[in-house]
Every structure is written in C-alpha cells, then in structure tokens.
Amino acid sequence: MQERYSCILPFVFFTITITYTVIMKEIRHLLAVVLTFVAVASQASGSASLPVLRIAFPDKIVKDMPYSNGTMSLTDTDGNVVEMKAKFKTRGATAQQYLMKPALNMKLQNEDYTEEADSALLGIRSCSTWILDAMAIDRICMRNRVTMDVWNEYSRLPYETDFDGRHGTAGRFIELYINDVYYGIYCMSDRINRKLLDLKKYDEKKELVRGVLYKSGTSDIDNQNERGFSSDSLACTVTWHNAWELKEPEDHAGLAAWQPLLDLYDNQTNYAAVKKYFFLENLVDYQLLVMAFSIGDNWGNKNHYFSIRNIQKDIDDADPTESARRKVVVTPWDLDASLGGAYDGRYYDGTYSQWSVAAISKNGFYPFSYCQGQSEYKALMKSRWQQVRKTVFSKLSVNKRLEEYRDLFINSGAWQRMTDAFDARSSKPCYVSDLAQEVAYIEKWYSDRFTEMDSYFGVTTIMGDANGDGIVSVADANSVVNYFLGNTAVDIDLNAADVNGDGTITIADANAIVNLYIGQ
To answer: What stretches of 249-346 adopt beta strand conformation (E)?
Structure first.
C-alpha cells in the first residue's frame, strides 16, 4: 500500500512518497515536526553597516612608531558612541611594511594618561589593550577572522575560564579613520593575554613567576644564531633562529620566566616527553587547523603562543588536575595567510597555495615533530577530523562564514569605499576589486582542500547519512528537518546532509534523503 503526502508551508514544498507498512510511523513523526514549523517572513531590515572608529594622535605614522597619546571615538551600528583617551603604536613585523594601511595597538587610558582603562567595546570582553588589524596583505580582509572564528568554535582550553575556555582572539570589523583620513576596513580584536588564558599572576610577596606566556617569532633580538637574551630579557633566542617574546610576566623578565621554555627545548625532546608536557588534544586541534586551511605561516618558528598556567606546579603531581596546571597549551596567532593565502598577498584570482596536506606532517616543528608517525597521535588526528569535518570544518560552515563577512562588506558599502579610497592613492595594500568573485574562488579552493583532507585520513561521505550512523534512513531526514528548524543540539554531518548540493540545508534535502531511502 502506498500513500502520497504533500505539505505546503510558507516557503516550503515537501513531497514524500512512502511505503506505508515500512516507514509510516517514522514519516508521521517527521511530518509532525515539519507541520509545527511556522515560517516567519524576513524582517524588513535596513542596510548593513559597520561600526566606525575615529582615532587621532599627533605623531607621524612610521615604522616602529612608539606609543603616541591621543583619543578614540567609536560609534556602533546603533549609533551609540564611546569616547576615551588612548595611545597608539604601530605593530607587526610584516605589517609595518604596509604603513599606507597601518596595523596598530590601541591602549585605552584614563583622562590624564597615567593608567590604562578597561572597556568592553562592541560587546567583546572588557580590556584595555586592543588590536587594530589592518589585514593589509589579505586581499579579502577576512582570512584571520574567519580562521580564528573556526578555532574559537571547536578548540577550547583544557580547563575552565571566565571566557568559556576561549584561547583565540575575538574581533569585530570596523571602518577606521586616522586623523580624519579614511583607512578602510579593519578588525578590532582583543589580545591573547594572561586574563583570557587564566594564567596565575606573578606572586609579588614571594617574588615568584607563576603563569607564563611566550610568543613565537620576533625581530626584537638581533643575533638569532645562538641562544641569548635581548637587553631587557623580553626576547630570547632558544635555538637557532627560534626566537620568542615574553608576554607574561612582562614586568618580571629574566631567567626564571624563561627557564620553562628553555627546559622544553633542552630536555623534553621525544614523544613521551611531549605527552607529558603538552595536551595531545590541543596539538591535534592546532595541526588540523594548519592542514585544513594550509597555513604555512603558522607551521614553524613563528605565529603561535605557548602558555603555562602555573610553572610552580609539579608536572609529576599524582593529582592530574594539579599536574595539568604545569602543562603547555599551544594557541595560534596571525592567521592572515590561511585559506590558500600567503604572507605577502601573492595568491589570488584563482591561484592559491599548493602546499599539500601530506607535506605538512613531514615537516613538523617542536613539539609536533615528535608526534608525526606516532600511531596514537595519528589515530587522534583521524578521529578528530571525522568529528569536526561534519560541522565547523564542513564546506557549508566555512562557506557560510566567508559569505556572511562578504555580504557585510559589500552591503554596508565599506568594500566599495575602501577600494575607491586606495584606488585613488599611489601606495596601496593588497585587495581585490571584485570581492564576491574572490570569495567564490576561495570556496572552490577549500572544497578541493576538504576532499584532500578526507583522502589523507581515509574518510568518505555517505550522501544522505546526515546523522552519521553509516546508513541512510528517515532518521537522517528527521535530523535535517530539526536542523532546518533551528535545533542546534542536532548532531548532523553538514556535508552528507546537503544532498542536492545547493550549499544550504533545507527541507528539499530531507525530501531527497527520504527518496534515497526508498530507492527512487
């Protein structure tokens, strides 16, 4: 016996042909779920816009510009204004080659510039020091933000913090004026620091270094051929051309603060030691990010952090919670060269990085170099990829992030304003005129990269198997419907759910899954 069911909802036409005796019960449940959906017409929204930051300071913008006292005025998209005293300096080694669109540090100040002042700008956590990222080598001005957003969604610190274990920057796109001159789209973000990572503060009474934060890669020390410190001990060459900056505790630089890092490179150089002093899950998360997004600039002696919550703890403590406080966490930084990009912006217009997935595991740096080839680590990598490829690393999810920022830039008029401004100037950063076309090229690059990742790990997609149980059934259609209706608790493989290949998950995919199930 066969019956034909049709339901017409606002914006939805859903037709299912079924064999009554086999799946009637499941279909009734599915239809009941769909019939509870009430389509709500899209709100008549105004045009998108970006917050506007206006800063002013008297000094000329030059390489290595020291902090200059000035002011900031930030207007959010609702017209609310925050005005504060602040001081500014240029930042970044590569970024300082692009002073036509300068990257800046902004430190909020009290009225007489004697103390730093915290503020939760644009809904980001309250802090005093902010990054004004110019993204001058990124032709789409969003690679770092997209990739860091992905990192923040799937990777967490191995302990609880006030910020839900986040250990990547959080940021919002703005339009920036410096001394009334328009400089285009920037990303204003917080920093990786002691408060975010919940590192133990320096013990003033006992004069003890506790939490430490090291940043890999610096030009603040001249001789990087052999181990040595800068004059202020805030920079150290640990091994040949492997130099670091001390970010915590900055006010107590010295051998005591550097010793944990030196010990890692001197004494902990095998896989057993890596397992003891690092969190393998954290290393897996970091390597997968580099592999999936081809981030060559972050696979070596720069652009990442090492942090330890409390170096006074005993790594051999019988209590695993206590010993974990002495372990190292790796955190990415400066992801502008991700998604097929390069540190100098040379990859665009359909030509992108060809650094293969397999090549990455053959050229690891410490501690990753001791993990490659280890069966345990390889199994963890594959298991984690099988998990995250369904959601945050899925083609649909990555494309959605790219397209949301693309639409924000275009619909707000910010992209046109920025390109018009720099088209009229003799000195230009890296950008493209046709943002929509460039994003489409990058989406194609990521689709190919995703396939390469699957091939490397020996993973396949069963189209229609939305719930990942290895078979296609009405349960998969039910998962799709629930996802479409906004049930974020649904565990769904976005790659397998997009059966019709239109780049979105809709009721049409649920219909296609049912048809697959019954063999049509």
So the answer is: 304-308, 328-332
Whether pTM > 0.90 for this model: the answer is no
Place of tokens 């396949």: 460
End-to-end, the C-alpha distance of the chain in Å comes to: 16
Find, among 397, 214, 377, the residue nearest to 282 by Cα: 377
pLDDT at 18: 41
Tell me what pLDDT residue 173 has: 98
Question: What's the pLDDT tens digit per position in 407-443?
Answer: 999 999 999 999 999 999 999 999 999 999 999 999 9
pLDDT of residue 167: 98
Q: What is the rounded distance in angstroms from the CA atom of residue 315 to the CA atom of residue 276?
A: 8
Token pair for 157: 């610190």
Give the pLDDT score at 510: 77
Residues 6+ apart with CB under 8 A from 17: 2, 4, 515, 518, 520
How far apart (Å, rounded) are the C-alpha atoms in residues 49 and 141?
A: 16
Q: Is 249 helix (H, G, I), strand (E, B) or coil?
A: coil
3-state SS of 57-119 is CCCCCCCCCCCEEEEEEEECCCCCEEEEEEEEEECCCCHHHCCCCCCEEEEEECCCCCCECCE
Question: Judging by DSSP bridges, how do beta strands 52-56 and 328-332 pair with one another?
Answer: unpaired
Half-sphere exposure of 360 (CA within 13 A, CB side): 24
Please state the rounded mean pLDDT for residues 15-41: 42
Core vs surface per residue 292-326: b (16+ CB within 10 A) or e: bbbbbbbbebbbbbbbbbbbebeeeeeeeeeebbb
Query: What is the per-residue pLDDT for 22?
Result: 46
